[in-house]
Design goal:
This protein has 12 helices and 12 strands. By secondary structure, the chain is of the alpha/beta class. The chain folds into 2 domains: about 140 residues, Rossmann fold, CATH 3.40.50; about 130 residues, 3-Layer(aba) Sandwich (Rossmann fold). It has a 10-stranded mixed beta sheet with strand order 3-2-1-4-5-12-9-6-7-8, with helices on both faces. A two-stranded antiparallel sheet has the order 10-11. Helix 1 links the parallel strand 1 and strand 2. Helix 4 packs across helix 5 and helix 11 crosses helix 12. The chain is globular, with a radius of gyration of 20 Å. About 5% of the residues have low confidence.
Amino acid sequence: MTTLRTLLLHVSASGISPRRLQLIKRLADEQGAGIEAVYAVTPALVEFPFSLTAEVLAAEQLVALEAKARDAARAALDRDCLAAGMPSIAWRAIDGDPVRGLRRQAWRADMLVLGQHQPDAAVPSAVPADFVASVLVSSGKPGLVLPYIDQATVTAKTVLVAWKPRPESARAMTAALPLLQQAGQVHLACWDDAAAHGSDLDAGMQDDGDTAAPALQFLQRHGINAIVHREGPPSADLGELLLSLAADLQADLLVMGCYGHGRAREWVLGGVTRTILNSMTLPVLMVH
């Protein structure tokens, strides 16, 4: 059975809620994985560039506040670890651009654990609104994104896999194997994207016209029997339909590709990915 060895937990200025930490601990215990925390936020002097033209004292105050927020986040994490009956988590603070910094750390881990952006958070996260997608697209690593509503369980009893004949979907399904193999029930939702695009890639990835066939065979070869939901051609509201299906199935986890393209931070996020990241109510495992 495939297992995870290292979970890389991103910590922002908002910190990690005790409930999220307990969920991460449960996942790590199930997988026999270690947890490492990386604190990465936008530097205050970058977020507030006007300070560079103000008095030196103003800039120093910003840096002091930034250090205070970092120390508070670490102290809160240590307290919550103690309350959860787990040892302190290895900690690393990143200077500079948070996307670039976390990307470099991500390459030595099996999976990232990220938090959904919360626009009205009581304590701002101090990372860009597109931080999660930017890290996933630039790192190429799988990311488990936890919703800010804190209703997640990460028990993976019921998993919904969103399948499209695309490399991103294939990577996501492969990355999710450790969780899928422990799930009680796996559902595979597929849309006939070939009918919409008619590309050679789509045609080559299908089997006798059945879009789901390659994914089903892959899962079966890893001891996973999935229930297939064939949804026909994709529509403009695919993201909402996917979340609705997850709710109907009472899924604990959604597995899907993260779709985006472009150079560096100048890329276009796919509509379904954007909808899921904005409206998710369950943990989502994504890979670009």
